[in-house]
Amino acid sequence: MENNRRRFLKIASHSLGGILAAGIAAPLVGLGIHPLLKETVYGTEDFINLGKLEDFPIGVPKKINVTSSKMDAWNVFEGLVMGSVWVLRKEDNSINVFSVNCPHLGCGINWGEEEKQFLCPCHGGVFDMSGKVISGPPPRGLYSYDTKIQNNSVLINYNKLI
User: Tens digits of per-residue pLDDT, 95-122?
Assistant: First the structure.
């Protein structure tokens, strides 16, 4: 009889200890996994305002910095420079916004005023004003961004390359 009581108390105390350990471990595991399941850096806007349409001369690409706000947990960073883009306003007032990086190896693209072409100084890639490859090793034309004109302002989705 004494043996049965000891066995019962042993099983009961082990079970109770296991339940308590699981009760403590479950929230700790959830706390550790939660940041992995959640986006922790947020852009405050999908489309970023690059400026007024009249700020961009017709037929002349203009390189500008893209600034936005980012939120990291509880910190908000205003006016953060995300990168740069080439903005080209066409005669029909439509806009092309190109990446400043060459699609070949990511080097910075420059505008050749004399040639009226985008030039990659690294490996000699040449692109026309519409972003198409003219010559060189790049496998495709310049990347462009999803763009819209709203209330006379040029807006891009900096997270969406086309």
Answer: 999 999 999 999 999 999 999 999 999 9
The 3-state secondary structure of 47-98 reads CEEEEEHHHCCECCCEEEEEEEEEEECCEEEEEEEEEEEEEEECCCCCEEEE
* Mean of pLDDT values over 75-83: 84
Structure tokens given for 61: 């690409």
Q: What is the DSSP letter of 44?
A: S
Amino acid, single-letter form, for residue 66: V
**Domain map of the chain by residue range?**
1-38, 41-161
Q: Does the pLDDT value for residue 21 go beyond 70? A: yes
Q: Which structure tokens are listed for 35?
A: 């940041």
CA distance 83 to 110: 15
pTM of the model: 0.70
Query: Does domain 41-161 fall into CATH 2.102.10.10?
Result: yes
Categorise residue 14: left if φ over 0, alpha if ψ from -120 to 50, beta otherwise. alpha
